[in-house]
Amino acid sequence: MFQSFQGYNNFWKFHHKAPSLTSEKLDGICSDLPKALGFPSMQTKRNKVLHDNIEALLQCLTKYKSKLDKDNFRHKTVHHERMQPARTVEQDSLTKCIPAVQNVHNRYGKLDSAIKKVANLQFIDLDNYSPEDRIKRRIHVNELGLSCPIMLFRMAYGGSIGTLNFVWQTSSEDSVETSERNTKIIAKITSTLPKYSSRAIRRDFINKYSQFIKTPKSVLRHMFSDLTGCDIQVQNKEQDEVNQRVTEILLGSDDPELLLDFRKLNGKEIDTKFDVFYDELGKYLKEFCVKFKQFTTFVCLDDKAIVPVGEPGCPISTGVRGHNRVLPPASGPQLVATDHDFHLAGIVPSVALVTTIPIHCNDSFFQGNIFVTKDKVFEASGPCRHATEITKILREHYSDNNVDLNTPVLCLLTDCGPDHRVTFETVKLSLVQLFMQLDLDMLVAIRTAPNHSWMNPAERCMSLLNLALQHVAFERNIMDEKFEKAVKNKSSLTAIRNLAEYKEGFRAAFSTSINQVIDKINNRFSRMKLKGENIITY
Predict the structure, then answer these.
(1) CA dist., res. 130 & res. 114, Å (int)
(2) What does pLDDT average to in each consecutive run of 10 residues of the chain (538 residues)?
(3) Are 98 and 104 in contact (CB under 8 A)?
(4) DSSP characters over 6-32
(5) How many CB atoms lie within 10 A of CB 370?
């Protein structure tokens, strides 16, 4: 019955990862199926076939779940705790004599020619002459037959390694010399086989020494492998990649500290080794601006967090100042503003701090003029928009002819956001645009390290803007009824922007409905000052 559902929800068709069937999932299914069988409709004659099939499915899943539980218990209590390797040559190897055949199959032609050229006490790795497919390789080994008698030695490791096969030419006579020769070849093969230790031994070794020395576990795994002669075993793909990188560094470098540098730069551990370099780099930037003060303009850019704007009749608090979010009492204070994150309209103030370069490089650069712009719906942040905005600001306030910048050098300090990251091609194009429009001789674009935007002086301007947004809730004005109906079911900025493409007049109506909020925010921002200089809004 269930075969008719084959092909439904094919994960590979939708490029999804193959689902894993765990004991926990089976337990949930096995607990739900009895409930379905208990429905009154399942007891009718009409659904008898369905009832029997579901009951058979339940029995099958229950047996498979019990098997998974037993295997999991056995692995945790037996395999993972044993002190001896799971596979040994004495117990899991097989030696077999295969007599010669008169007619050699074509697929064994290369192997037959190669084994006749092998020197004494030498062997051939049969896997090099076998198909890659697991089933075809098994058939290839089982039906093996050459023009001369051969010995087949098999070592079954299981798992991802599988079974290793080796062959060599032997004599058809059962003599002492032949037995001694075969014994020597088997000993030679055994010495080349990979050696594996048990999981418990490796775990005890790593846990024991990691408590006393500050050495990465990847290095301890290599130390264990070198001391015991066992090959490195991995638990997942990520661990295998780490081991390969560690091996490459250990074998190809004479610098013992190089490995530790790579490990500390992965974000998991704070490394202060390069703090001196970063401090000197910051000092160099400040010294450059101070030395060429009359030729340089220093601008810091950053975007503030979204200022939410509620729908008509539903103002939303800016959330700048924390407050009690419990429900209001039946009598007394009334709820006049909501406090949640779901809103369509909003303002994203883009802050540009044009610093007043001090006389000395040790003095503060947190001074100058602050310029704030725009909303988030139809004025989304982007590299070209930022370049256009800063061009407009500099032309209006720092240009004698309203075209070219007064200074030939412009230094930009931004964070590492996608619209400011100087390694992105779109940001590079916007910088070229800025360089050409302001007729610059030199443009220096700097970004902070990831998660270090607090180093940007423009970030400190956000505290001033937050003062203007305390205890405030905003809502946009109502639009025409047809536009309100059109936007009612929209739940994302992309949907609103797409609506403006085909709904004539919607863009102008939506912008008009939010203009009053922008004017209020600009009014509050313009009343703030940074060291006596008013904030300028657009």
Answers:
(1) 14
(2) 71 74 85 86 86 89 88 71 67 85 86 84 86 85 87 81 85 82 87 72 71 70 68 63 68 56 51 73 88 92 83 75 52 62 75 89 83 67 86 90 91 83 87 92 87 81 85 84 81 76 83 85 87 83
(3) no
(4) TTTT-TTTTTPPPPP--HHHHHHHHHH
(5) 22
Number of C-beta neighbours around residue 297 at 10 A: 21
Residue 137: count of CB within 10 angstroms of its CB: 17
| Torsion (CA) 15, 21, 25, 31 in degrees, nearest 10 | 120
Number of alpha carbons in the 13 Å side-chain half-sphere of residue 490: 19
What are the residues facing 167 on neighbouring strands? 124, 152
3-state SS class at 135: helix
Which two tokens mark 359?
Answer: 């006389």
Per DSSP bridges, beta strands 296-303 and 345-355 are antiparallel
Q: Which amino acid is at 248?
A: E
Which helix (H) or strand (E) segment holds residue 272: the answer is: none
The overall pTM is greater than 0.90: no
Q: At 206, is the secondary structure helix, strand, or coil?
A: helix
Q: Which amino acid is present at 174?
A: D
| C-alpha closest to that of 163 among 140, 180, 183, 185 | 140
The DSSP code for 484 is H
CA angle 298, 304, 305 (to 5 degrees): 160
Q: Where are the domains of the chain?
A: 2-79, 89-192, 199-264, 277-325+333-537
Cβ atoms of residues 516 and 477 within 8 Å = yes
Model pLDDT, residue 263: 46
SS3 of residue 317 by DSSP: strand
Q: Which pair of tokens denotes residue 497?
A: 């922007």
Residues ≥6 apart with Cβ < 8 Å to 229? 195
Encoding tokens for residue 169?
């030419």
**Residue listed under structure tokens 């498979």:** 64
Contact at 8 Å (CB) between 206 and 220?
Answer: yes
Residue 334 to residues 224, 321, 330, Cα–Cα distance (Å): 69, 19, 8
Q: Which of 216, 273, 270 is nearest to 245 (CA)?
A: 216
Residue found by looking up tokens 């004017």 in the block = 519
